[in-house]
């Protein structure tokens, strides 16, 4: 008998129903989370179409942080979110590279084996809604085939802040009433489009 669990979420006054899907491989979820519905992430800055503004910039995992870049990386940064709202990188041992919000400044980061997570790192409240949701149906370039969305539900809005680095690229932050980077004056508000990923899993041994 087939059981389907349905979760109902409301985003931007729209109600979206998400069904549990079949794991992509046979790893034992009791000891290690199994990737389901993996995705890559691209930025969307309203009202710009792909190739203008921040729209189309690619989210990459670099040194424990998440960076927006225009250059496509050799290995795509692939994530997945489980039913408990925990987010992981699609690596050989996902539990060793879980995604978190650093409460000291609000940046989006991930665990690196052998290195401690920041004190109080927030590892829950992540949400991935798959392709065909309403989040980007009105966005230029996404009207005919809207992607999904990747958000963190622990703040007052669904977007993220892309803050310029001294070299190239933009580091990703969330801002809430409790914490946030010292200044967002030079940062840009973006949404995250979740693009379905169907390549090899795990993508890489470790980011």
List keywords for this structure.
mainly beta, 8-stranded antiparallel β-sheet, globular, two-stranded antiparallel sheet, disordered N terminus, 207 residues, single chain
What's the short version?
With 207 residues, this protein is mostly beta strands. It has strands at residues 6-11, 14-19, 39-44, 58-62, 65-69, 79-81, 87-89, 99-101, 108-110, 126-129, 148-152, 160-164, 170-173, 188-196.
Describe the structure in your own words.
This protein is 0% helix and 32% strand. The protein contains no helices and 14 strands. The protein is globular, with a radius of gyration of 16 Å. The model is unreliable at 1-31 and 134-143 (pLDDT under 50).
Integer-rounded radius of gyration: 16 Å
Mean pLDDT: 78
User: Strand count, sense and closure of the main sheet?
Assistant: 8 strands, antiparallel
Distance between the termini: 38 Å
Shape: globular
Number of strands: 14
Q: Report the sheet-strand fraction.
A: 25-35%
> Helical content, roughly?
under 10%
* Topology order in helix (H) and strand (E) letters: EEEEEEEEEEEEEE
List the helices and strands and how they pair.
Elements: E1 6-11, E2 14-19, E3 39-44, E4 58-62, E5 65-69, E6 79-81, E7 87-89, E8 99-101, E9 108-110, E10 126-129, E11 148-152, E12 160-164, E13 170-173, E14 188-196
Antiparallel strand pairs: 1-2, 3-14, 4-5, 5-13, 6-7, 8-9, 10-11, 11-14, 12-13, 12-14
């Amino acid at each position: 008998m087939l059981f389907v669990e349905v979760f109902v979420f409301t985003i931007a006054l729209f109600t979206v129903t998400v069904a549990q899907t079949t794991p992509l491989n046979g790893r034992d979820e009791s000891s290690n989370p199994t990737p389901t519905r993996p995705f890559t992430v691209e930025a969307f800055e309203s009202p710009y179409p792909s190739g203008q503004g921040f729209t189309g910039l690619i989210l990459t995992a670099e040194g424990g942080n998440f960076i927006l870049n225009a250059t496509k990386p050799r290995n795509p940064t692939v994530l997945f979110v489980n039913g408990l709202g925990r987010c992981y990188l699609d690596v050989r041992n996902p539990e060793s590279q879980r995604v978190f919000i650093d409460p000291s400044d609000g940046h989006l980061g991930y665990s690196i084996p052998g290195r401690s997570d920041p004190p109080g790192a927030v590892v829950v409240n992540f949400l991935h809604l798959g392709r065909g949701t309403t989040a980007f149906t009105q966005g230029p370039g996404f009207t005919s085939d809207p992607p999904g969305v990747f958000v963190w539900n622990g703040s007052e809005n669904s977007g993220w802040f892309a803050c310029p680095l001294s070299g190239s690229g933009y580091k990703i932050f969330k801002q809430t009433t409790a914490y946030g980077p010292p200044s967002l004056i030079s940062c840009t508000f973006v949404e995250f489009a979740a693009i379905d990923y169907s390549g090899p899993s795990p993508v890489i041994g470790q980011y």
